[in-house]
Design a protein that fits this description.
The complex is a heterodimer of chains A (530) and B (114). With 530 residues, chain A is an alpha+beta fold. Helix content of chain A is 57%, strand content 8%. Chain A has 18 helices and 7 strands. The radius of gyration of chain A is 26 Å and the shape is globular. By secondary structure, chain B is mainly alpha-helical. Helix content of chain B is 85%, strand content 0%. Chain B has 6 helices and no strands. In chain B, helix 1 runs antiparallel to helix 3 and helix 1 packs across helix 4 (65-89). The chains are: A alpha+beta (530), B mainly alpha (114). At the A-B interface, helix 6 and helix 13 of A face helix 1, helix 2 and helix 4 of B.
Amino acid sequence: MRITDEFRKSMNWLHTWTGIALSSILFAMFWMGTLTVFHLEINKWMMPETRIAVDTTMPMDPVVMPQLEAGTFEEGEQVFFARPSERMPLIRYARFGGSERQSHFLHPETGEIVERTNSHGASDFFYPFHFSLHISWMGLGYWIVGLASVAMLVLAVSGIFIHRKIFQDFFSFRPKKQARRSTLDLHNMTAIIALPFHILFPLSGILIFALVYFPDSASVPFGGDRAALNETRSGFTTYEAAGEPGPMPQSIDQYIDRAEAIWTERDGRTAHADYLRVANVGDANSVVTIQQSFGPKKVARGTDMISFRPGTGEVVKDFEIGKIRHASAYLEGAHFLRFDSWAVRWLFFLGGLAGCAMIATGLLFWMRARIKKGMEPTSVRVVRALSAGSVTGIIAASGAFMVANRLLTNESTLGGLDRAALEVAAFYVVWLGTFIHAGIRDKAAWREQMWLIAVIAGAAPILNWITTGGFIVGALQPGQVAVAMTDVVLIAASAAAVMGARRMAKTEALERAKPVRAPRAAAAGLAPAE
Amino acid sequence: MIVSLGTLLIAGLLGVGSTTFLALSQDRHWKALAPKGTKPRPVLRRIGWSLAAATLVVCVLRDGGSFAALIWPMVMAAASFTVAMGLAYYPAPLKYLAGKLAPAAAAASTKQAA
């Protein structure tokens, strides 16, 4: 195919307007996704009771067996345990399928229920934000995110076509040229150098939610039976209770050892079971399932499952995902980032930041181009307010969420809201505030919100220090490294925000000094990617 | 921990080496850094790509193919960013390197001129 100017122009139009229409949502997804890379580490920061070291291969029997023996279980009730990991050292214990769902966290040493910090933490706030935007009405959030992910792929491809000098410009960043030029340089560079990342994440995100977007087409081969689809795809089987008493499992650890030995031999790499399930405790049709959803040494998300019959120990079911599903499991596993590789986690964190920079600079470039071409002052104000709130605003609000966590206690209430709700309220109040602030302060909004970020991100480690006594050096002990790293990143964010604010002040001063040039007579709406 | 940090560092350094040579092999950056009147030698590009391949080899040896497929592109991205920032804010070491790598004849003539 020959790339004509006409084609390039239409790609430019597509890139510009898709980008502008969805930039706020895309930025929110990239930003929250970037934080999600370290959601368990941020959890440790926000929930001091999880700052403990744990032996991840510890025997589970001392914790699991008392719960199974002491509990009275309803018919059909299922028991679930998540093994402790370095990143999440508490053991999750849940019961469902009965009249009441229960979920607790158990201490790995004592096996007792841990009183938790009443907070959503990063796992229940930042994490779902990036794939649902916390819009639960009719699953709308998933659909908006899905649309934005497809748009992101469109943006990546159209961006390649309009960017003429991909190779010549690969290393080009010219900060001393005019602000518009250097903004575009930064947009192009962060987009091109991390292009595999910018394609991998929206694509694998769509794959993860494929069944949400196309629930019926996938179940057609199963005659529309979604349970059958789920069983074939993910191996989940529901075991009905027989209604007659049966043997209790003598030990869970023996099943863990057997399952891990089978997987290790089959895959040729260390296996580590992460979830344990017991169906119909004490019933004749009781089944113990050992699961490896995310292997430590493999990228692909697995859902390896082996089910045993307590008493006889016979293998009831041995499930591994199908060959064809492996391709998507690899991409999905890369997105989930649950394997044991801090290198990938840090590199993807940087990739996420590059994505945020790409979206923010794209937005800034378009705004500067439009304002230069002449735009109504009211529109300028609205666009500026929306963009500042969407970029610097959401960053400041995320910081406020963490600061609120350190300022509040489990006993805090205000206006009927408990601690967890107040933390979320702090996020939304600050976020809304940044839009209003940007609407009032217009040109100065970005710079002033940078200062806000600097203050919030700088205050957070100090508050952590005061409330938990853990500060970088003191926190550099087993189980606390994540906390120290979070503090370091917060301080770095604060420093970066100060630098950003200063640079913006400089640019503003230069713009004030220069006489305003006449608007160019270029075609309105097109921001040519030079 | 030391091994996994060390090997990643090696991969990173090789990556920066790779992107340094690739940047120097481009006319625009060469012109900004090297002695006047010289042209980048074609061997620079070959060295750059060889180092990129070496980075990939280190990544594969470190974690195997399926992890290397994730790590290598991101190491190269981080290396590219480092070099781009180096070119923009701190070009002195790159200038020195370009002077050393300039075609022999031209380098000799600049020496004589000096």
